[in-house]
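Journal club prep — side note

Before the paper discussion, L.F. wants everyone to see what a predicted structure for a comparable chain looks like in token form. Sequence:
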Amino acid sequence: MSPSGQKRACQSVPVDILSILPDKAIDNILMRLPLREAVRTSILAKTWRYIWCRLPQLELDESLWNLSQSSDPTPRFKDIVYHFLTLHEGPVTKFTFSIPNLKSYPKLDNLIYFLSRNDIQHLVLELPPVPGDRYKLPSSIFTCLQLRNLTLESCLIPLPPSAFKGFDKLISLELSYVKIPSKFLKSLISSCPLLDKLVLRIAESSYVIEINAPMLKSFHFFGDIRCICLKTIPRLSKLSLWCCEYLERSGKFDIAKFFEPISGLDDLHLDNHCVEFLARAGGAVSKRLPFDLNCVKHLYLHCSYLGKLDIISCAFCLIRSFPCLQYMEIQVVDYNDNNIPALECLEVEAFSDVIFDHLREVKLRNTVGSKREMQLIKLLLAKSPVLVKMVIEASWFVKTSATIKILKELTKFQRASPKAEVVYR
């Protein structure tokens, strides 16, 4: 091309090509950037100078400054909030606040008030835990009536004003290590008629939390399970229970009464401390619950100690009570101590009254090839006539010689299902 042709081609392209992009396209670009980088785009073009000020989704986190330069980001945070409050225009539908090492919360009250008046729908406040000095939320939090997702961590939630009737649009609520009046927590859950997902992480509690949520489908709880009481939860399909490691084992706990209300449960996740608590606080564990939970299709047992008879008995009490199980995953902890005898409750003969008619897939994780693990594998293969796949994942320290021995033994086990595939990793 001649020099004159090149000149004409260059002249046909707008000098400020960024400025002709549609507003929606520009907003989508900026919302995919960290806020620090989004603000820096103001130097790209004259028309981009204040575009970041209209973004509906913002995140204040440690990426806003270099924490290596200062251990206390509080002064810088104060300036950032000031500029945000004075320059931002339009609605803010999603806001995330997550800044570790923050010593205090200047202007955070003003920020929450600003969000309450600008259509906030998704609010995340993850505050650094400060023992005995938690940030107290302002009353303006209760005027965020457009909220659909709310996450609060390590803060103090006060009693609401009398005019507060609940978040009637909220579908997801996550509370982690917050301090909240017991009566209000109960009423908060029940006053969210559309609540679909609930996450509670409570290290210590001296009161019982009743869960009344007719639309609730997913519930994750970490803490002392004696402090929760499942009431009206007809749609609950996924339940995850994680007990505190230091949970006291004293007191009685009625396992049957706890599981009775969850008639629609599909997925059940239990960690080892939870199974251990159920085994010890539940008293003498029978072979099965007084009723079957035919709805449970997926069961996850994490860190199950195969060397402890009470834990194994409790785990299989539950498994026997879920006759329609289709998928089961067990992460085992077994140190292959040959001084611990194999457990009779894992023998195939002990399950003469049980057939896992619907079990199609099993995954065993962190295995070492102990006698108890091999008993469990043999039992599941012999009692699962429609089993399609069993995946056995070895612990990282299992030696090659042990692997060969395990594989040889696996080939000897009878399989009730002719289609069963055993994969050892």
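L.F.'s comment for the group: Residues 74-87 form the longest helix (14 residues). Keep this in mind when we get to the figures.
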